[in-house]
Specification:
mainly alpha, 2 domains, about 0% strand, globular, about 450 residues, Growth Hormone, Chain: A, single chain
Length: about 450
């Protein structure tokens, strides 16, 4: 078995185990007496723990190697999934449903802390691919993620018919199998003469992070990556609820819908990203992806049929397949080989912060403003991503000024065509803030 195959299998099993709970989490929380806001908090707990720990794991992989960090993450994930399964009321751990909800939160935090393989896996790809082929290498990781996203929800929906908690123990078994394969067949990607980066204190690590963010090109790309995942994550905790309430999909078909989205992403990253990058370049491929995601997510609130949702998710998933590997490749090519682990860890950490904030923001907006608000906010955020992608390569001042003006124009256009009062207010506030930003940038 080739090392790249093991790495791809690692990413596939990792995401499949995580994605199994996407169509089930709302039902599991309801069984324990929680609400849709609890679902958002559970997703946030995982991503917040990941945000806090990923930079350290990335730096650690620069010092001790990618292989041990990946293996440690897999072992910890196996334990975290097993803890999740212990919250099943049928196991008799406790009769207190609030206590069992606490066990769920503990397992999600453990999984976030131990998901070290995200940063190390991206750094591994950067280690073994030349710069001109890096987008295609990141695309292969995207294919593995996409396959996990296809099989995970479908498998979770299937196993969920015999019990919502069964996928937890199945996921633990998958992680242990993956750990064995990594131990047996995954070699270290860092060369034997690699000079490890010295250990840094937390204050030095913070200064290094700020230094990366202050670099004109790299800093802008990291901001774009953060906003892209924020927009993507806003609908994480609400899409299943939307499918259940607005379309009437049962749990099994919700899993199939997520599997379909992953399938479109697989085809895009496996077959279309390479030719697109060769013809358009990585930046323009990312811009096309942002536009498609904006159109797809913006259409969802206006449909209540399975056909309409299928069309919207097809466009959305096609865009996601374009933007994810190309943005990662652009970030990777902005730093030296010695800094890959630290920078990829930072980018994944910022992504984890977005995944922490997004679901909580989306579920809160659903509770206060109704089902359409999260999708409209996500579309507005994708518009900002597209505007910022158009500014890659320019100075900080030009980026702020031009992006603010473009985003203000988009917000005003959205206000003109908006059919709802809450979106009217959101669009006007966004336009006002953007115009103020453009004015301040001009005075500097």
């Amino acid at each position: 078995m080739k090392p790249l195959h093991v790495l791809l299998m690692t990413m596939f099993i990792d995401l499949a185990g995580f994605a199994m709970f996407i169509p089930l989490l709302n039902y599991i929380v309801a069984e324990l007496g929680g609400t849709i806001l609890t679902v958002g908090l559970l997703i946030t707990a995982f991503s917040l723990a990941q945000f806090l720990c990923l930079p350290a794991w990335g730096r650690l992989s620069d010092r001790i190697g990618r292989r041990p960090v990946i293996m440690l993450g897999l072992g910890g994930s196996a334990v975290a999934y097993a803890v999740f399964g212990l919250a099943d009321p049928a196991l008799g751990l406790s009769d207190d449903r609030q206590f069992l909800l606490g066990v769920l939160f503990l397992s999600r935090i453990m999984l976030g802390v131990m998901s070290a393989n995200y940063a190390a896996a991206y750094a591994y790809i950067a280690d073994v691919t030349p710069p001109e082929e890096r987008a295609q290498g990141m695309g292969l990781l995207g294919v593995a993620f996409g396959l996990g996203f296809v099989c995970g929800p479908a498998l979770g929906g299937l196993l969920g018919q015999w019990g919502f908690w069964l996928p937890a123990f199945f996921g633990s078994g998958l992680a242990l199998l993956n750990l064995f394969c990594a131990w047996r067949w995954l070699p270290e990607s860092l060369p034997p003469d690699h000079v490890p980066r010295p250990r840094v204190s937390p204050s030095e690590a913070l200064r290094e992070t700020v230094g990366y963010l202050r670099q004109p090109r790299l800093g802008l790309l990291l901001v774009i990556f953060t906003l892209y995942l924020l927009a993507f994550s806003i609908i994480f905790g609400t899409f299943v609820e939307f499918s259940k309430e607005r379309i009437g999909l049962p749990v099994r078909l919700s899993g199939v819908l997520f599997a379909y989205m992953g399938g479109v992403s697989i085809v895009t990253q496996g077959c279309l990203v390479g030719p697109a990058v060769r013809n358009w370049g990585e930046a323009w491929t990312s811009r096309a992806g942002a536009l498609l995601m904006l159109l797809g997510i913006g259409y969802i609130p206006y449909t209540s049929t399975i056909e309409g949702v299928a069309l919207a998710t097809t466009i959305f998933s096609l865009g996601s397949g374009f933007i994810q590997p190309t943005l990662s490749a652009l970030i990777s090519r902005s730093v030296s080989a010695r800094e890959q682990g630290a920078v990829m860890g930072l980018s994944q950490s910022l992504g984890a912060l977005s995944r922490a904030v997004g679901p909580l923001l989306g579920t809160s907006m659903w509770s206060v403003l109704g089902y359409a608000a999260p999708f409209r906010l996500a579309s507005l955020t994708f518009a900002l991503v597209l505007v910022l992608m158009l500014q890659v390569g320019q100075s900080h001042r030009a980026v702020v000024q031009q992006s603010a003006l473009l985003f203000a124009g988009f917000s005003l256009a959205l206000w003109v065509i908006s059919p709802s009062a809450e979106l009217d207010r959101l669009a006007l506030v966004a336009a006002g803030v953007a115009l103020l930003g453009a004015l301040l940038a001009r005075k500097q």
